[in-house]
Amino acid sequence: MGKPPILETPDLKAGSSHLDKDSTRTPYWLLMATKAKCIGILTAGGDSPGLNAAIRGVGKAALGFYGMKVVGFRDGFRGLIENRRLDLDRSTLSGILTTGGTILGTSRDKPHRMVINGRTRDMTGVIRDNLKKWGIECVVCLGGGGTQKSALRLHQAGVNIVTLPKTIDNDVAMTDASFGFATALDIATEAVDRLHSTAHSHHRIIVAEIMGHRAGWLTLGAGLAGGADVILIPEIPYDVETIAEAIRQRSKHGSNFSIVAVAEGAMSRHDARVFSSAERNLERAKTLNEKLEVKREIAALEVRHQGNTMRLARHLEELTHLESRVTILGHVQRGGTPSAADRMLATRLGTACADLIVAGKYGVMVAARGDDAEPVPLEKVAGKRKSVPPGHSWVESARRVQTCLGD
């Protein structure tokens, strides 16, 4: 038998990931003896393509490369309360790379505000004590903006945490990309492509509502790639008359149909002013009662906004005298087989996550940075949103091909 293989000990300072070329070389067997850990993985928030690929990336690197034990907790943070777990061994991780959804299930439960037996309780301390009792040395949380905030709270309570950015909205701060976005972009673009023929055949305005929450990345990307004539995103409040005039100009030049790609969070200028005022009031609120009152106001505004796309279509029909139809893509954007790009990103970030755990670097999110990955402190991520900058290259490209952005 030959000598034991040599494995480099990760040197994961800020701005680097995986194995550094100048790392100290340590015998594989010694690394296994000193670094063996039991880690947990959970998926929280909305589902998205690439979650299983990320679970596989973390799990296979941790299990097969570093010799750790890996446990999956079911249905998000609730699994940490109820000890609902799944051993992520080689057989469990096999064959899930191309599978949509998440084998662990997910939920939007928050550790600090979880309903237990009909009562809302702060379960942060219970989770910390459970993990200690079960011998779980680190929890890997796969999720979007809300999950990053929950993970930070657990980290501040003494739990070893590493997160991965997951969302079809691409709005997680401090990372170039989040897995799930590339697949959703492909799906939304194909939908816009398909709407062209029916819009042209019936001389209609087709209004396609695309997901994205309060960020316009998905709609802007799909609209630009799919050749939408109008693209409306939350970052650029729109004027209905401006949109109608752009459609009328198309008709004058012989185009008897128009495709309007509208983000679910897009707002008119008036509504955007009302929302901004409410958000400023929330920031200025000092007492708990004041905050609750403003939050109720914002919740009422969000309920009223839910029918925005239908109202927009009716207004455009009235202003242009062209028949309009609405297509709401909805959750089809979350489902199905992840794209090659999302599988690659999820695997890359997942294996980098295992490196960070071995290095003992906790309280960070594994961010995509170009073709590499780097740890970013959760304090720099939680509570922040990556919005589309007004001068972003996608915005400028849309303007240069004469796409109306509603402003």
What do you see in this structure?
The structure is a single chain. With 407 residues, this protein is an alpha/beta fold. It folds into 2 domains: 6-179 and 338-380, 3-Layer(aba) Sandwich (Rossmann fold), CATH 3.40.50; 185-334, 3-Layer(aba) Sandwich (Rossmann fold). It has 14 helices and 15 strands. The chain has a 7-stranded mixed sheet, sandwiched between helices. It has a 4-stranded parallel sheet with strand order 11-12-10-13, sandwiched between helices. Strand 8 (138-143), helix 6 and strand 9 form a beta-alpha-beta unit. The radius of gyration is 24 Å and the shape is globular. Mean pLDDT is 89; it is low at 1-27.
- Give the overall shape: globular
Radius of gyration: 24 Å
What share of residues is helical? 40-55%
The largest beta-sheet arranges its strands as: 5-4-3-8-9-14-15
State the oligomer. Answer: single chain
Order of helices and strands: EEHEHEHEHEEHEHEHEHEHEHHHEHEEH
What is the CATH class designation of the largest domain?
Alpha Beta
> What is the level-2 CATH architecture name of the largest domain?
3-Layer(aba) Sandwich
- Low-confidence segments, ≥5 residues, pLDDT <50? 1-27
SS-based class: alpha/beta
Give a count of the beta strands, DSSP E runs of length 2 or more. 15
Total domains: 2
How far is the N terminus from the C terminus?
71 Å
* Main pleated sheet: 7 strands, mixed
CATH topology of the largest domain: Rossmann fold
Our count of helices gives 14
Mean pLDDT: 89
